[in-house]
UniProtKB/TrEMBL annotation:
Protein name: Putative hydroxypyruvate isomerase
GO molecular function: hydroxypyruvate isomerase activity
Ranges annotated as biased composition (Low complexity): 12-21
Gene Ontology biological-process entries: glyoxylate metabolic process
Active-site residues, Swiss-Prot/TrEMBL: E179 (proton donor/acceptor), E276 (proton donor/acceptor)
InterPro entries: HyI-like, Sugar_Epim/Isomerase, Xyl_isomerase-like_sf, Xyl_isomerase-like_TIM-brl
């Protein structure tokens, strides 16, 4: 995406809210898994028939109470706040900045030795946006493992950088999350398994960071989602969903969603679920999955 349009200062603002891991009160009738968590619209993936700024109102009209998207940085925080307020939406999560598509930095810098200054500058910017938008979670991208760096060195670099980000976020009202991504969709991505992701959270302290548990990536890489949920939910601050093999809405692919969502409800998960999928039937028509797979 293009360069940011913000012309304001670069310091992280004073916190406006305490850290949160669960949604605040949502409007009655807000879109959610029946008897379970609220759903957040991922505005990179949903309502793509509309210009980005028009997707906020479309999400609210479809019943969403919250939104997420990877890249807020082409827009000034003030403009995004205006769009959120006008639509009555909560910003749930954003990503840390990434480099241009095709660049070595395209998926972040956290595992890149010798790039600490650039990594920290990105975290400063990410925290600035997260606090300005009221987002409780900042997903710190792991990066593509450099070809000349050993797995051991990349892991040590990554843990050091995540620990720094967690320390920097302390007191801002923002919590850091990390996400494992599958090799098919994100070739070379450093963080590929839930075991490695939870090891990172343990290394920096699970009271200070958490998982962004993407069930699509987990299914493609490992399968056995009910077992994955049971082992990973104690670490999870946010979930995302899509159905393999085509990353479409639940009910269009291989996952047994009634069983998976039942396990999620049984575990008492209270965070948000981000709808990060490519609608096979159009965004609004595709939302029929909420009733279809939970009936």
């Amino acid at each position: 995406m293009g360069a940011g349009t913000d012309r304001g200062g670069h310091g992280v603002p004073a916190p406006s809210a305490a850290p949160v891991s669960a949604p605040r009160a949502a409007p009655v009738g807000a879109l959610r898994v029946p008897g379970g968590p609220l759903l957040a619209a991922n505005l990179k993936w949903l309502f793509t028939e509309l210009d980005f700024e028009r997707r906020f109102d479309a999400a609210a009209e479809a019943g969403f109470a919250g939104v997420e998207y990877a890249d807020p940085y082409p827009y000034a925080p003030a403009r995004l706040r205006t769009l959120l307020r006008a639509a009555g939406l909560r910003q749930v999560l954003i990503n840390s900045p990434a480099g241009q598509p095709g660049s070595p930095e395209r998926a972040g810098l956290a595992c890149h030795p010798g790039r600490a200054a650039d990594f920290r500058a990105g975290i400063e910017r990410g925290l600035e946006y997260a606090t300005e938008l009221g987002a409780g979670l900042l997903h710190v991208l792991a990066g593509i493992t450099p070809p000349d760096v050993s797995a051991e060195r990349a892991f040590a670099t990554y843990v050091t950088n995540i620990a720094w980000a967690v320390d920097r976020a302390h007191g801002t009202g923002v919590r850091i999350v990390v996400e494992a991504q599958n090799e098919r969709d994100a070739p070379g991505y450093f963080l590929r398994t839930q075991a490695r992701a939870t090891a990172v959270v343990e290394a920096v302290g699970r009271d200070r960071a958490g998982l962004l548990l993407d069930l699509y990536h987990a299914q493609v890489t490992e399968g056995d989602l009910v077992r994955t949920l049971r082992s990973c939910l104690p670490y999870a601050l946010h979930l995302q969903i899509a159905d393999p093999p085509d990353r479409t809405e639940p009910g269009t692919g291989e996952i047994r969603w009634p069983r998976v969502l039942g396990a999620l409800r049984d575990a008492g998960y209270e965070g948000w679920i981000g709808c990060e999928y490519r609608p096979a039937r159009g965004t609004v028509a595709g939302l029929g999955w909420v009733a279809e797979v939970t009936a």
